Amino acid sequence: MSADCILAIDQGTTNTKAILVDATGAIVAQASRPVAVSYPQPAWVEQDPRVLWSSVQQAMDECLVAVSAGRLAAVAITNQRETILLWDRQTGEPLGPAVVWQCHRSAPFCQELSARGLEPFIRERTGLTIDPMFSAAKARWLLAHTADGSERAARGELCLGTVDSWLLWNLTGGGVHACDVTNASRTQLFDIHNLRWDTELADLFGVPLAALPEVKPSSASFGATVALNTLPANVPVASMIGDSHAALFGHAAFRPGGVKATYGTGSSLMASTPTAVRSERGLSTTIAWARDRLDHATYALEGNIYATGAAVAWLADILGRGDSAEGIERLASQVPDSGSVYFVPALVGLGAPYWNDAARGMISGLVGGTRPAHLARATLESIAYQVRDVLDALVQDVGFEPGCLLADGGGSRNDLLMQIQADIVGLPVIRSASAELSALGAAWLAGLAIGLWSSEDELETLVPAGDRFEPRLSAVEREARIAGWQQAVACTLFDATRRAQQRKG
Fold first, then answer.
1. pLDDT, tens digit, for every residue of 38-77?
2. How far is CA 175 from CA 79, 101, 242, 420, in A?
3. Residues contacting 216, CB < 8 A, separation 6+
4. How far is CA 46 from CA 10, 38, 262, 408, in A?
């Protein structure tokens, strides 16, 4: 039998998934492994690079036993973004933790950059606001906390990279240090207009260019595998792409007009744009993907929300419900609404469109009759409200109203959340039929690179119809609930300002 399967690795914040996709677009095998997340200090988030790689190996091995080695045509990678790692180029040993995208240990340096008035310059060059979420300030921290880190990096002895580059390094036995353009565009070290690492930005953040990976298109030749357990040698790694970008591609939203929301630990709203559109409302200009050549990049506008699935997991832990998302959905279903309770889940600050890393979580509207079910409902509603905030900003920036909201990610499997989302945005929500859309999008890009599929038009024929959720709330009720949410956010931001002033005083 000819090689007709793509192995797609989806390395996320809390789990690693692997799927095998055949030429019809069907998933013929899949596996998942959890990944531990550590919180060594308040607002610090990190992972063990060795554990990340081990989870990938385990998921790959379980998947690959389902097919003969001869059917494996290519490997695809999609990954949590902005998370940054540092390792020794000769030994491949990590020299610190993987500093996760949620981590705010670099907040003081980001505040220093803002105080120096560098926001316009950085935003113009990278499309990104100054925020601890992005990789550059984290990379600076890693180098500063490694013996002779900057000097060794400048001599080419160390590798700095996002998760895709770490996986590629291991898959190729240390043969290739590269990343794709979408991951590069999220580091705050990459010029999204000239499509290259930027020397001024690298100097500003103190990151030697010699340590950074080669940047390639999302659908390209990234090298070949070495033999690893059930993974045979000489299989081409044919695509790498950030998870949110991969999900947009997996929706077949190849042309401007579609808006998707990915519901994971955090959430991302993204819409492709014909050119690099500068946001005036707190969104990020980024690269959606680049096929074949860097100078053929497709751009996008994106809004990143820090805590959506993380808010559900937090509440489940507080309430002692180990089944997390499923238990919270069942609990929230016991009441028709939150009883005017609002939860602003600023567990590590607020992301788009507010970008306030000093904000802290707040629950308001509690009364004697408030029960755990109301808190569960308020938590699900908080996800929908945050998505609505970003969608409003995106619509104003791009100048068009989408006919629906495309949904994917683990949280999209929650029927109640999807109905609440439709009610809050006042649009139909179309949930992807695939629960593994990021991995599927990465597989599609790999298949295009090796000729398994001929075009985006062919890929569109492989997309099954998704579930549709129609809004049920009246416009009056919708606006009343949104007004209550906006008041809760205003209180959260006021509290952040008050605490900041107290620290200065």
1. 999 988 999 999 999 999 999 999 999 888 777 899 999 9
2. 20, 26, 21, 48
3. 178, 179, 180, 181, 222, 240, 294
4. 18, 5, 22, 25
pLDDT of residue 234: 95
Separation of alpha carbons 380 and 329, rounded Å: 8
Kindly list the domain boundaries of the chain, sorted by start residue. 5-244, 309-427+473-504
| Distance separating alpha carbons of residues 225 and 167, to the nearest angstrom | 11
DSSP string, 428-443: -EEE-S-S-HHHHHHH
Which parts of the chain sit beneath pLDDT 50? Answer: 1
SS3 141: helix
Q: Which residue has the tokens 């300030």?
A: 137
Q: Each residue of 455-503: pLDDT tens digit? A: 888 998 888 888 999 999 999 999 999 999 999 999 999 988 887 777 6
pTM of whole model > 0.85? yes
CATH number of 309-427+473-504: 3.30.420.40
Strands 178-180 and 297-305: unpaired
Distance of CA 479 to the CA centre of its chain: 29
Give CATH for domain 5-244: 3.30.420.40
Judge if 5-244 and 309-427+473-504 fold alike in CATH terms. Answer: yes
